[in-house]
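User: Run a structure prediction on this.
Assistant: Running it now.
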Amino acid sequence: MQERPSDGKPPPTFFQPRTFLSPRGIATISFLCTAGLLALKLIMGLVSGSIAVLSDALDSGNDLLAATAVLVSIRIAVHAPDEEHPYGHGKVESISASVSAGVVGLGGGFVLWQAVRRLIEGSPEIHIALGLAPMVVAVVVNSVLSSGMRRVARRSQSLALASEATHLQTNVAQAATVIVGLTLVGLTDQKLFDPLAAIGLALYMWRTAYAIIRDAVGEIMDVSLPEAERRLIWDCILGHAVQVRGFHHLRTRRSGPNRYVEVHLLVDPDSTVRQVHELTDSLEAEIRQRLPGSVITIHAEPDDGRYRGPMEHVPREAAGQQ
């Protein structure tokens, strides 16, 4: 069973109900909130005449597609490994993250196109108050939702939720940019600030899309775990320096919420099967304690003087400290 990290602190009361602590629950809430914001911004954007608000509304349509992809991926990722998917279904979250990146990037392109068109053709009359109202609502809703989703993503180690939380943060920045643009229009009576705000928004969206796709591709390509996490694995092995004479072929990767760790251990050729089994069980437990959700494969082999790697001089030093 997958273990979840705990910082020893109770969750905030707002997220106390089990629905809010569930990855599927927070993904469902994201979907419903995005649908509501889409309707609100579309109506107010049409009424106010603001291209920034209308562009943000149409971007919310893309957001709805991304939220749908996250919700579907979360439902698939929790399925247990089976004969066709012995490593589980976690990488579907990488696909979902890629969809989110594509949605953000395409949305940025559309916003830029609309902004440039307004710069060339000019802007119609803009009703500032009507344009500001949905943007303020969007800032509040997306800020709360992003914070809660980031918390659940950390606990569940979900790349899909982490990417969607980043996506929601871009929505906060989008709404804030529109608010600044409309405020400047109201203060200066210069409609130019409306499309300029939209251009700044588009550039920010492209930057965010790049960051999301970079993380998603890294997981799809089976990039090793971060150096800090690999160092934790090393520390666990070095903690058994009296019994472990060396190790090699340490390989790590991530798939959805799970980490996969493979390593070859060199042990005393005279060790019994029971001794080696107890050693590997102890080492696996320590690694899982430090890196919850790890699936560990340890291959033990007799030490023949080769491949000791990082432990070349450790056993003697460690033994002398016992």
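The chain is about 65% helix and 10% strand.
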